[in-house]
Amino acid sequence: MKVMIVEDEVLVRLGLKKAVPWSTLGMELVCEAADGAEAYEMFVRHLPDIVLVDIELPKMDGLSFIHYAKTRRPDAKFIILTCQQDMSYARSAIQLQVADFLLKSTLDIKELCDILQNLSLELRQKRHEAEASGVEDLNRGRRRRRFFQSWLDGVLPVPDPDRFDVQLQEFSPALKAERFQAWVVQLHSASLTEEETESVGEEIERLTARQFGSRYLGGTPEPLKRRWHLIFSGSAPASDAVRWKEAVGQARGLELAVAVSAPFADPYEWRTFDRQAADLLQAEFYGRVGEVYAKDDLISETISEAVLKLKRDMYERAGSLQFEEMKRLVGDLCGALKQPPYLHPPIVKNMFTEFLFRIWSACEEVASGSVSANHRLVDRFYASGRLDELAELLLDELARAGEEVRSHSQDDKTKTILQIKQYIKTHLHRELSLQETADAFYMNSSYLSRLFREVTDQSFTEYVLREKTELAVALMKNGMHLTQISEKLGYQNLSSFTRMFKKVRGVSPSRYMDRT
Fold first, then answer.
1. Where on the phi/psi map is residue 289: left (φ > 0), alpha (ψ -120 to 50), or beta?
2. Which domains are present in the chain?
3. pLDDT digits (tens, 9 = 90+) for 150-177
4. Beta strand residue intervals within 238-362, DSSP E
5. Measured between alpha carbons, how far apart are the two ends of the chain, in Å?
6. Which residues pair with 292 in a beta bridge?
7. 407 pLDDT tier (thresholds 50, 70, 90)
8. pTM of the predicted protein model
9. Counting Cβ atoms within 10 Å, is residue 371 exposed (0-12), middle (13-18) or buried (19+)?
10. How would residue 137 be classed by pLDDT, with cut points 50, 70 and 90?
């Protein structure tokens, strides 16, 4: 018997693992989970016979987990372990037909072992009766769903004349098509109840079978994501998917998105092509909601040159605290990102998070830590479902950071020079002139030169060269060769870099390192 533990308290999980003599009971502890969402994923993967589950869990409570788990394996047995004595929990557990309801505060390991042993005997007896009668405990509809779920999960055995398999014996004709195609259907009506969502799934089955006939082989639901995974024989054009989507929408008044995979020949590659189809749904991150997606190259991991240029520009603007310019570039970047092929959303979220940390780092010196890292905001970045939502979060933080910098007690001259210093630090990789820097800040170059010396007691050029040598020393200590350092700092050749270094430090780079 395969057993699973679902418990968010580590000590309770460890206690159960050690206190229960699993092997003596003829059981194997195959997996454990700390929250409801993880539990569901592990349950689908391992399909345990018996599950010990807490009610109060993060992400999804134990009763909801049991409800969803029973759609995947109705014959599994569930034992609830809880600190709650609320009768409403007990009534819900009874409605879900759980095997037992135990309080953690009065839990007796011997009692738990007796319950486990009785459940094991009950399950074995049912299996024996099913084998003896030649009829499985599940009806054909449930057996069919189990078959397609096993097929999609990649755990369906290959037909073997020396080994009898009930699933393959009954449904193996579905594997014999010459070509296959995977669809992933996404429902956007989040307000539907669980029963209504299940009803939508039944409607999808009926309308698909009606439109495609025997070409529709079957499918399996993914209720937590409100998705359905379908598989067809042959290859349907995108226009067929559009007509099907319209028919379902008219029948139920629902907004659906459909992702269609490329055709494939090996039935055991359904899992791979299903994932490729699901990837196409990421186009919805860019505002294309409720469409039919059928282009293999719609989603990409390669950042375009236009996006790369804007990313570098925004990174530099953030480093020099040019937040107003950065705000303008956010719109340009979003416009470039909305051109297909689309980047995988996690890549975009990583990019925007880099901007966040760059803003916070640049503000640290100017605002004396008043603009600090906000890890809850980072979480919101990664939870964003749309690019526009992500852009709004970044714009809000730019406004907040800009206000903090402007309201800091330093005088305007000092603020300006601190911003210019940040700008210089982000441009040490190339030759940086006074005129270019003045243009970046919309200033007269002569005024900038006088202001820089007034605030820092050194010239603009002296400061730039000192910062370049500081970076060079750090790179040398990290083991980088002088030729590489010279190129990294924007010098045409090693001799130019050496002359600069000697002018500032009084000795050549190699002699400096010998001394230190």
1. beta
2. 2-132 (3.40.50.2300), 144-157+165-297 (3.30.70.270), 305-409 (no CATH), 412-514 (1.10.10.60)
3. 899 888 877 766 665 666 777 888 888 9
4. 256-260, 292-293, 299-300, 342-343
5. 67
6. 258
7. low
8. 0.59
9. buried
10. very low
